[in-house]
User: What shape does this take?
Amino acid sequence: MIGRLNHVAIAVRDISAASALYRNTLGAQVSAPEALTDHGVTVVFITLPNTKIELLEPLGADSPIAKFLEKNPDGGIHHICYEVEDIAAARDRLIQTGARVLGAGEPKIGAHGKPVLFLHPKDFNGTLIELEQA
Ligand SMILES: CC[C@@H](C(=O)O)C(=O)SCCNC(=O)CCNC(=O)[C@H](O)C(C)(C)COP(=O)(O)OP(=O)(O)OC[C@H]1O[C@@H](n2cnc3c(N)ncnc32)[C@H](O)[C@@H]1OP(=O)(O)O
Ligand SMILES: [Co+2]
Assistant: This one.
């Protein structure tokens, strides 16, 4: 069911400082910051030859990233995103297996303008998984 690794997301406290680190120290191409109010995050993308890195800064205290940073003050890997061909079919299959699909199973439009869903980290070895329709 799952396809390409679309991105690995890292929670950061200061997206400007984290972007500068990737740009200046690692020599990466970093996109301009974008605020996604629907997801409670400011995001930048770093495009690598085989996948992307997503840096996420919380947009307000209610952001899932703010809660993650409370528990992980240095930041860290927040989720990994796999592509799926048909997100509704993937959701139905996952629900049948008993996996918890977050957000009542309703896809939201993600950072790339495509539908995304999240799966509970407790059902996947402590890793939050995002699915993005390819
Ligand atoms: C840029 C847009 C988009 C894209 O297109 O790429 C994005 O990526 S947006 C990214 C941000 N959005 C989300 O994270 C949405 C999905 N997340 C959630 O719904 C919640 O964050 C959550 C995963 C359900 C956790 O929320 P909650 O239960 O309220 O928090 P707790 O702190 O109580 O966590 C419970 C339990 O789970 C552990 N946990 C939480 N987050 C993670 C994580 N990212 N990775 C691994 N484990 C995580 C947390 O530590 C708790 O465990 P215990 O302490 O053992 O109880
Ligand atoms: Co993501």
